[in-house]
Amino acid sequence: MMLRQKNIGYSLFQQLRRAKCSQIDKQNSTDALKRPLYLDMQATTPIDFRVLDKMLPYLTVDYGNPHSKSHLYGVNSSSIVEEARENIAQLLNAEPSEIVFNSGATESNNTALLGLSEHHFNNKSIKNHIITTTMEHKTVLEACKYIQKRFGFNVTFMDVDEYGRVDINKLSQIINEKTLLFSVMSLNNEVGVIQDLESLGALCEERGVYFHTDAAQAIGKIPLDVRKMNIDLMSFTGHKVFAPKGTGGLFIRDKKQYKKNNKPAIQLAPLIHGGGQERGMRSGTLSPPMVIALGEACKIAQREMENDNQHIKKLYERMYERIFREVPFVKLNGHPVHRYFGNLNISFKYIFSGDIMNEIKNKIAFSAGAACLDEPSYVLQALHVDESYAFGAIRIGIGRFTTQEEVDYLLDTLIPIVNNLRQKNKVYQQHFAKQNNQ
Ligand SMILES: Cc1ncc(COP(=O)(O)O)c(C=O)c1O
């Protein structure tokens, strides 16, 4: 019986594999594209086949409940969960016991911020001040606003510099004896800027402030070391690193790591109550296939990060070089060097990004930087990008599987669209008329 089920399981797996492979062959050939080319890797990534390979048996054959360890099914599922925990811990230089699995970075950010605040509120701690930045993900901004209302905490939404980086001297001045936590995104989802986590972590450590980083976009893309960076809490998610949506986790620094430290071991009130899984931090039955997918994605990323980044940087330079050579009045958003090169966020003056999207959406899928027609994105506003540029922002997201052919297809499509839209723009025409009359 077991054998028969195994065969069924694996034949389904082979079929899926074949179907996916033929899909990618098509995807690689832009001529044969039946749907727009996907270049929005900050929104989500496709599942790596190796990740899919790893997870399928745990959907079909080894489907035990990892918390029911009185029989082989549960034992197998539990051991695969622990293997995943180990893979993630290795990538972050953490201990496996410091990893709590959950549904993704939204849940992690909420657990980190609300859990810490609730614990300190319940214990009548004098620490009731949180610092974050104006360009954080909505999951952090909204959780902070909730904490202000629910616990009466003070939250400082500090400014960043024109590239989106935190000024460490400014942060040092804002920290006071009531500061409980500083929270910043490791790698910004919209403009790709990377923070100096090591310096920020050192400052927080020295001043007795807990340090949380939202690494949803960073895990598997840039080196992260929770010890070197003095990180207390780190949020991550699977679907930005070639694992499925709905799987993620939170790193919580273990109490033995606070021995020589001027802050007490971190404690969080859980967000979800129930069976006490994940050391009481997150009740609910874990999904072994989802957890192992995240673990496998991290293992692959650790092995291939350098290769991935070399490949991605080459493609980024190809895009950057041609766009800046062939299109006038274009601006890079975010930092030119301290950035993830899988993110090209650029603004075209004299154009609305919505108009570019309308022209290109049947051919290529990427993201418009402007949130709506009336207002540029809050992240570009945080960077004080001039409105004349902020309305014309687009974000192109490339990744491990993006090819040079696809990048050339993007450039051959995008550049004429931008130049044509400009020709229709009266302000642009007037600008050139003025220049010619001078
Ligand atoms: C920086 C950042 N934080 C948090 C999230 C939310 O992650 P999830 O989709 O796993 O809930 C995202 C996803 O867009 C993100 O980019």
From TrEMBL:
It comes from Tetrahymena thermophila (strain SB210). PANTHER family: CYSTEINE DESULFURASE, CYSTEINE DESULFURYLASE FAMILY MEMBER. Signal peptide: none annotated. The keyword Lipid biosynthesis does not apply. GO terms for cellular component: cytosol; mitochondrion. GO terms for molecular function: cysteine desulfurase activity; iron-sulfur cluster binding; metal ion binding; transaminase activity. The keyword Iron-sulfur applies. This is cysteine desulfurase. Its cofactor is pyridoxal 5'-phosphate. Keywords: Aminotransferase, Iron, Iron-sulfur, Metal-binding, Pyridoxal phosphate, Transferase. SUPFAM superfamilies: PLP-dependent transferases. It is an enzyme of class 2 (transferase).
